[in-house]
Structure formats: C-alpha cells, structure tokens
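Data deposition worksheet. Section B asks for the primary sequence of the deposited chain exactly as it was used as input, without tags or linkers unless they were present during the calculation. Section C holds the resulting structure in token form. Section D is free text for depositor observations; keep each observation to a single sentence. Incomplete worksheets are returned to the depositor.
Section A, Depositor: J.P.
Section B:
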Amino acid sequence: MSREHRITQVFIELADTLVAEFEVVDFLGYLAGVSVELLDVDAAGLMLADEDGLLHVMASSDDQAELLELFELQQDEGPCPECFRTGVPVVNVELSRWPDFAAAAAAGGYTSAHALPLHLRGHVIGALNLFRTSTEPLTDQDIKLAQALSDIATIGLLHEREIRGHQVLAEQLQHALDSRIEIEQAKGMLAERAGVSPVAAFGAMRSYARGKGLGLSVVAHGVLDGTLQTSALFAR
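Section C:
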C-alpha cells in the first residue's frame, strides 16, 4: 500500500470514529499511533489543557514518549509547553533551547522534538508532540500532515462537545482523564497476566473493543473487575 493510500485510509477511519461512539482516550491514542506510522518520527503523544490551563498527557505511542511528556510538564519546558503557550508550531528547532529537556530527551534516545497546536474556537486546547532519534529536520510535507492530524484531534473534541451539549470542555477532559487512569491500570494488569508488553496489552484491548463495538474504557473496566477474561482478549 502506498503512503498516499494509507493516509487516505487513516482519515477515513478517523472520520468513521467521529461518527461512531466517541471515546477521547481511544481516539487520541489511535492518533498518536498513526502519527508515528505516517510521519518520519519515532514517537508521538497528545496533551490537553484543563480549565485552569494546565496540560495533561492524554495519549502516547509508547512508554518512553510518555515519560518524556511527563518530564515536559513537570519542568514546564520543551516544545509542547511552548507550543501551547504561543499557539504556533514549534518545529525544527535546536533542543538546546531547553537544556533540561534536551538532557532528558537524549537519555530516552531522542535527538529532536516538535509540537503542533490543537486549536478550538480561537483557543489552544493542547498540542501534538513528535519525537525523533534523528536530527534531520521534518519535511514541509510531514509538518503539514502533522498539523492536519492535530486539526482532526481538535475536530474530534469539538464533535464530542457538541454531542454533550451543555457540558463544557473541562468536564469532557476530566472524564477522559478518569478513563485514561482506568485504561492504564487495566493495561498493566493485562500485561502482567498475559506475560506481554504494555504496548501489546493495550493493542489487544483496543482490538477487542473495536471488534465488539465497545468503548475502550468498558473493556478496561472488564479487565479490572475480572469479568473479561485474558483469553478472550488474545483470541482475536
């Protein structure tokens, strides 16, 4: 399959997700994964801001990227916090701009990082983080595609907000944060039970959820309370 064909397929799948029952954590997790697949990057993650303007890690393509995103939040430095504050893309810049972040990125094997803003009705509500093990700059094509993926994330959040009607974005975010905690707990429990990596455990949960037409948080709850057997998740 050509890259162009795959990009078209991904955007069709994302549109289908927006029409179907929408779950923020699953949607953003999928976006993080396809960002790595479609762009010349090695890891990706998405952050959203709460009503107080504080960023939260909502999705990461792998555990190493999540640790680096958490470091950005703790130190309040790096491409993602800067992108969120300014509302403009932070791409192809030297990591030396953020000395502590640069050291943490290097420790994780990354030598460059980028961020694209998520805009919603004139407000920046988060950012897409991209990490690379290469110092080669992102191409204009990849930057445009990354921004398109960021825009899709924003559309998804707007779509969900309209469905919920009177509920505000802060409530939506809190629900997503609560769901993410439960999903992370279930991922760890399933990984230990099945003797697989957390990434494989999460993949099995997502595949089962999509195959059964269930929300990812519903599957996670089943894993945690024991009503969903490990064998059922890995039989697909």
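Section D:
The mean pLDDT is 85.
The chain has ten helices and four strands.
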